Amino acid sequence: YRVKWSQNTAMGTLIGVLEKDIENGDTADGEDNDRDTYIIGLVTKAGDVKVMPLIAYKDSNSSTTTDLDLIKGILAVTGEVAGLGFEAEGVVIDYDYSQDTVADATVYGIYGNIWANLDALKIGVLGAYGNWDTDAGIGYTFGDDFACGGAYLMGDSVMLGPAAAAEIDMTAVTLFALYADYKVNDKLSIGGYFGYAVSNQDDGSLYDDSDMYELSGDITYMITPNLKYAINAGTAQVEYGDTTPDPDRSIKLAHTLTFSF
């Protein structure tokens, strides 16, 4: 189950969440082997800047596997200053295991995106960084839904997340990207994206010192206010850090017709 509570205060909106992720209790101890998550966050503003801090605690108890206490802190900001729009987020995750045989870990990631709207042209630059904990042998993972600031392949066809079968996955990366969108007229717009990512892994695997890049673009035409047609094209290349042969270049071309209600 999941219970959410929110309250408007003088500082902003205060949010609390209690979530029962796994229910494994028995008749002797109803909370034994459960996994519970507690979250508290705030949505507030400092001038034209929205500030959103959050902290989460996860208590994972198990009599047969490793017990884990996980603490996650998040600070996100978004707004506009001096004509420039921006969004940024920082995340720190601490893993504290009860067993001495499992190494504790601390991983963190940061993301920033700045853009300018110059009449019909929007141009932006973004960066992201995820660390690698050498002692624990794990890195910060941006997640499968991280779109790399508008990338067409990175974060989708070419993953930036935990390794999975038949996928090209990197974790603990440093990412830099440039993008632009130009509105030709009320119906037609074009966009372009270039991104480069290098892995921060330090484990001697094929992803140690690997890198990849993407170049992509799109054309969108509004047939009606509710119906749009888009053509997307992109290419991406991964270069492994060891002697493993690099995979073939990824090429993706698609067109979509989207109706919105």
List the main descriptive attributes of the protein structure presented here:
261 residues, 0% helix, 13-stranded antiparallel beta sheet, 60% strand, mainly beta
Number of helices: 0
Give, in spatial order, the strands making up the sheet with the most strands.
1-2-3-4-5-6-7-8-11-12-13-14-15
- End-to-end Cα distance, whole Å, is 32 Å
Radius of gyration: 22 Å
Query: What characteristic shape results from the CA principal axes?
Result: globular
> Structural class of the helix and strand makeup?
mainly beta
Give the amount of beta strand, in percent.
over 45%
Report the major sheet.
13 strands, antiparallel
Mean pLDDT across residues = 86
- Helix percentage: under 10%
What is the number of beta strands? 15
Order of helices and strands: EEEEEEEEEEEEEEE
Poorly predicted regions are: 162-168
